[in-house]
Specification:
mainly alpha; DUF1540 domain-containing protein
């Protein structure tokens, strides 16, 4: 299971990120902060459009 920091970094770099929140996003850890936890595509702790691993691997290359 990825940690909060990884999910935040992935969400910030993911071109498929789609927030479940409707307002301004700030403060890491806040209910609607930019994180995979707050993405429309995360279902049952898995990215339903299969971008998590690809995005994470891209971060590792940088």
């Amino acid at each position: 299971m990825p940690n909060t920091e990884q999910m935040t970094h992935v969400a910030n770099s993911c071109n498929g990120y789609d927030s479940i929140g409707t307002g301004f996003q700030s403060s890491i850890g806040n209910a609607y902060s930019k994180s995979c936890d707050n993405c429309q595509h995360l279902k049952s702790d898995k990215c339903e459009i299969n971008l998590y691993d690809k995005t994470l691997a891209g971060l590792d290359q940088g």
